[in-house]
């Protein structure tokens, strides 16, 4: 697969404006990938994600699984010799992926949207309901044995969730109103 | 004709510096250059990294000092044909517009400099065939015209002739990383909207402030560095299609450019070979002067008895280093002459 770089690479400026990270400061040393806690689930390490931005590869980047596998543990950022705020960068990329229409069918986005919906409604995630919701959207159910184990060992609650009080709902409303796009600014 | 002076062969920056420092001690110096004017390669250079002193200004300043010093005789358009050692003196025969002439000296400094690698040896880059493909030296020579040309995308290719055992030289020419960064920076400053890419294998900016200089080009001017050696330049629709691999991503790359600049290697000068072998000096496998092992010589620039060298005839070096070596060779000459005089008494 040959990557074609077109004359106007706008992606880098766009991302830099949103998250205030200078992509050109990256020295491609790979310290981020070396320490990354989610790397086994990513097809591109943080270093390669920065390189993809520099090469203007919007579609590959925003369709990638890697940006969703980042758990914001800040190890990469903490160890980066170029002081790159990788975590803010990942947040920004996830937001961009949500906005881009081409990625609507992305199952990672679907999961995260359902998850956030639950947190907003109940104040925390409710695994059994999340599983149900995902199944309705077409994701296959987890294996029966695993489900049985999780339920009998009380890892997953099957009782209906608590409804949080009014102050929580008001707080969520406030966040939604003032919710800003981009990080670091 | 007897001349108790010192011969400096090569009027580039190293030779000029050596002549200035030797003459400062009150000795007669003959500065010989085959060119019509002093300054060697540097007289045609624009800004020099890292402090962006203009090359031609530096040469003018040195030439002015030489002009004002009556101890220095400048012999332009003159080539040293033969160089012989006899009884502690050095006999040189010159060729000046066909007229041979012989002169005796007490010591000599060889500063014959370097040549530029011929970019045409890389057929795949099309230098000399595709308009728009130039070398870094061409860039220096035609800088003003190039910076005025409308450029959407420019590509710099490093290590053209350097670090190549098949078509070029096996060594690293040392200065290309820096001058490429400098040229990319100048292009970006003149045309901020242009996309400037630099294809590199490694970035070797081992000079004072070198790393900061290159990082500045990347971070402040957004010159894009891509790790990988360009495989081919293909003329397409009046532009140049660059095919390479981004070795950091492991993917083949394609991009179109209007300007391709090849950072060609510094190769040994032809005249170094004949001069050095006449006085019993040795050349290394690449054709540069083989230095005497550090622990065996009194001066780092000494070649044989009474003969010293300086600058890029020893190995590719930057202008600052050439000046340093010129001074070091001058110190070697003065020390040699002083101890010789003591021995004569």
UniProtKB/TrEMBL annotation, chain A:
Pfam families, A to Z: Fer4_9
SUPFAM superfamilies (UniProt xref): alpha-helical ferredoxin
UniProt signal peptide: none
InterPro entries reported for this sequence: 4Fe4S_Fe-S-bd, 4Fe4S_Fe_S_CS, HdrC_iron-sulfur_subunit, Helical_ferredxn
GO molecular function: 4 iron, 4 sulfur cluster binding; metal ion binding; oxidoreductase activity
Gene3D superfamilies: Alpha-helical ferredoxin (1.10.1060.10)
A cellular component term, taken from the record's GO annotations: plasma membrane
Domain (4Fe-4S ferredoxin-type): residue spans on this chain: 17-47
PANTHER family in the cross-refs: IRON-SULFUR-BINDING OXIDOREDUCTASE FADF-RELATED, IRON-SULFUR-BINDING OXIDOREDUCTASE FADF-RELATED-RELATED
Protein name (database record): Heterodisulfide reductase subunit C
TrEMBL record, chain B:
Domain FAD/NAD(P)-binding, first and last residues per copy: 6-117
Entry annotated with the keyword Metal-binding: yes
UniProt xrefs under SUPFAM superfamilies: FAD/NAD(P)-binding domain (SSF51905)
Keywords: 4Fe-4S, Iron, Iron-sulfur, Metal-binding, Oxidoreductase
Pfam annotation, one family: Pyr_redox_2
GO molecular function: 4 iron, 4 sulfur cluster binding; metal ion binding; oxidoreductase activity
Protein name: Heterodisulfide reductase subunit A
Organism the protein comes from: Desulfosporosinus lacus DSM 15449
């Amino acid at each position: 697969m040959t990557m074609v770089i077109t004359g106007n690479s706008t992606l880098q400026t766009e991302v830099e404006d949103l998250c205030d990270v200078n992509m050109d400061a990256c020295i491609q040393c790979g310290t981020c990938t070396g320490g990354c806690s989610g790397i086994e689930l990513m097809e591109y390490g943080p270093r390669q994600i920065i390189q993809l931005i520099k090469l203007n590869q919007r579609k590959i980047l925003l369709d990638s699984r890697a940006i969703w596998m980042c758990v914001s543990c800040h190890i990469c950022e903490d160890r980066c010799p170029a002081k790159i705020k990788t975590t803010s960068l990942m947040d920004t990329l996830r937001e961009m992926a949500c906005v881009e229409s081409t990625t609507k069918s992305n199952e990672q986005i679907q999961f995260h949207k359902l998850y956030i919906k639950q947190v907003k409604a109940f104040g925390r995630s409710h695994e059994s309901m999340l599983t149900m919701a995902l199944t309705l959207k077409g994701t296959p159910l987890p294996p029966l044995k695993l489900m049985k184990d999780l339920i009998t060992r009380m890892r997953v609650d099957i009782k209906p969730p608590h409804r949080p009080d009014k102050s929580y709902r008001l707080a969520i409303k406030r966040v939604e109103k003032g919710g800003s796009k981009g990080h670091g600014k | 004709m007897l001349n108790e002076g010192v011969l400096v062969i090569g009027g580039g920056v190293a030779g000029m510096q050596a002549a200035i420092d030797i003459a400062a001690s009150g000795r007669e110096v003959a500065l010989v250059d085959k060119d019509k004017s002093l300054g060697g390669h540097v007289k045609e250079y624009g800004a020099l990294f890292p402090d962006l002193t203009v090359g031609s200004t530096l040469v003018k300043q040195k030439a002015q000092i030489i002009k004002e010093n009556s101890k220095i005789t400048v012999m332009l358009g003159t080539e040293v044909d033969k160089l012989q050692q006899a009884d502690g003196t050095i006999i040189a025969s010159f060729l000046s517009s066909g007229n041979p002439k012989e002169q005796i000296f007490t010591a000599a400094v060889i500063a014959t400099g370097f040549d530029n690698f011929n970019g045409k040896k890389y057929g795949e880059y099309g230098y000399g065939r595709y308009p728009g493909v130039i070398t870094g030296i061409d860039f220096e020579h035609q800088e003003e015209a190039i910076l005025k040309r409308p450029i959407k995308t420019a590509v710099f290719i490093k290590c053209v002739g350097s670090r190549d055992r098949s078509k070029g030289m096996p060594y690293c020419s040392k200065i290309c990383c820096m001058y490429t960064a400098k040229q990319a920076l100048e292009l970006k400053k003149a045309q901020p909207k242009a996309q400037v890419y630099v294809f590199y294998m490694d970035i070797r900016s081992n000079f004072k402030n070198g790393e900061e200089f290159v990082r500045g080009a990347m971070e402040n001017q957004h010159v894009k560095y891509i790790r990988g050696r360009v495989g081919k330049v293909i003329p397409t629709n009046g532009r140049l299609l660059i095919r390479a691999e981004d070795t950091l991503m492991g993917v083949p790359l394609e991009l179109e450019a209007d300007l391709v600049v090849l950072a060609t290697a510094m190769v040994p000068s032809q005249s170094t070979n004949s001069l050095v072998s006449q006085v019993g000096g040795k050349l290394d496998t690449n054709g540069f002067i083989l230095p005497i092992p550090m622990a065996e010589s009194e001066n780092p620039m000494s070649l044989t008895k009474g003969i010293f060298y300086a600058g890029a005839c020893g190995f590719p070096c930057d202008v600052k280093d050439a000046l340093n070596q010129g001074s070091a060779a001058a110190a070697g000459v003065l020390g040699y002459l002083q101890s010789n005089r003591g021995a004569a008494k």
